[in-house]
């Protein structure tokens, strides 16, 4: 009788040890790489690129940004502060998905079927291994992991684009494009020379900031950058020329990192 009892006790110890190891192992959804588990789908697009009517206000610029690797987010939209943010997204079907996934730029707001991301068809297909894109897209919705990463735009500085709805010189709306790094722009102000003060622009929607009766002459702009390590103001002198035009993007000659 002693031998079976000894075996049972040893098995119990082994079970407890193994269970402890399983409990201590990190969940793949809360990994050391700070990936978060979610779901993703894609929207219809005749050319597989982005949409020019996205909630961030990028217009036609948003269609081809990042080679068309763009999409809409739900909670990550953050009332427009998430516009322009970049995320590494990878799906979790080993036989169909790459381990690296792809980088998406947020250009729109949307949600559906408990998803955090609604990707462009081109972006969604880039999650797949070679020759497996059609098989992956047949799923419609897939489980994913994502984390925020730095946006990178080689050869481009940060620019202020004058929104097409602006009216010289009564109403000025700006949108920041080619915003590199992992920062959010949380405030934009223009220097009013005659009053010697900064005037705050209104957050109109998405990534669009606007103001009525903008300052005359070349416009100095400063914007507040918010990161995980704090906030700071960045100032750009003569960012917008005196004879600005709707639809034109102006280079700031600076880059965020």
Describe this structure in words.
- This protein is α+β, with helices and mostly antiparallel strands and 257 residues long.
- The chain is built from 4 helices and 15 strands.
- The chain has helices at residues 2-24, 61-64, 121-125, 133-137, and strands spanning 36-42, 70-73, 86-91, 102-109, 117-119, 142-149, 159-162, 171-177, 184-192, 197-200, 202-205, 208-212, 219-227, 230-240, 249-251.
- The protein has a 6-stranded mixed barrel with strand order 1-5-2-4-3-6. Strands 11-12-8-7-15 form a 5-stranded antiparallel β-sheet, with no helix packed on it.
- Strand 13 and strand 14 form a beta hairpin.
From the structure above, extract its key features.
elongated, alpha+beta, six-stranded mixed beta barrel, disordered N terminus, 4 helices, five-stranded antiparallel sheet, about 260 residues, 15 strands
Helix percentage: 10-25%
Largest sheet: 6 strands, mixed, barrel
Write out the strand line-up for the largest beta sheet, numbering strands in chain order: 1-5-2-4-3-6
Strand share of the residues? 35-45%
Q: Care to count the β-strands?
A: 15
Q: Outline, from the CA principal axes? A: elongated
The parts where pLDDT drops under 50 for at least 5 residues are 1-28
Distance between the termini: 71 Å
Radius of gyration (CA) equals: 24 Å
Ordered list of secondary-structure elements with their pairings:
Layout lengths: L1 H23 L11 E7 L18 H4 L5 E4 L12 E6 L10 E8 L7 E3 L1 H5 L7 H5 L4 E8 L9 E4 L8 E7 L6 E9 L4 E4 L1 E4 L2 E5 L6 E9 L2 E11 L8 E3 L6
Parallel strand pairs: 1-5, 2-4
Antiparallel strand pairs: 1-6, 2-5, 3-4, 3-6, 7-8, 7-15, 8-12, 9-10, 9-13, 11-12, 13-14
């Amino acid at each position: 009788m002693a031998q079976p009892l000894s075996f049972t006790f040893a098995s119990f110890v082994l079970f407890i040890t193994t269970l402890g190891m399983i409990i201590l192992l990190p969940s793949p959804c809360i990994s050391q790489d700070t990936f978060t588990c979610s779901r993703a789908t894609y929207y219809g697009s005749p050319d597989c690129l982005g949409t020019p009517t996205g909630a961030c206000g990028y217009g036609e610029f948003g269609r081809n940004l990042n080679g068309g690797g763009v999409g809409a987010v739900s909670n990550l939209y953050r009332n427009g502060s998430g516009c322009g943010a970049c995320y590494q997204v990878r799906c979790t079907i080993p036989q169909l998905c790459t381990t690296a996934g792809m980088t998406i730029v947020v250009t729109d707001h949307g949600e559906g079927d408990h998803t955090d991301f609604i990707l462009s068809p081109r972006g969604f297909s880039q999650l797949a291994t070679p020759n497996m894109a059609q098989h992956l897209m047949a799923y419609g919705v897939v489980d994913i992991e994502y984390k925020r990463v730095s946006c990178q735009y080689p050869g481009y500085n940060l620019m202020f684009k004058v929104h097409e709805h602006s009216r010289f010189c009564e109403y000025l709306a700006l949108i920041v494009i080619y915003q590199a790094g992992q920062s959010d722009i949380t405030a934009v102000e223009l220097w009013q020379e005659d009053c010697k003060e900064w005037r705050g622009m209104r957050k109109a929607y998405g990534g669009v900031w606007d103001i009525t009766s903008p300052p005359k002459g070349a416009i100095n702009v400063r914007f507040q950058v918010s990161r995980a390590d704090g906030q700071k103001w960045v100032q750009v002198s003569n960012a917008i020329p005196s004879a600005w035009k709707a639809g034109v993007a102006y280079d700031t000659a600076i880059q965020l990192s």
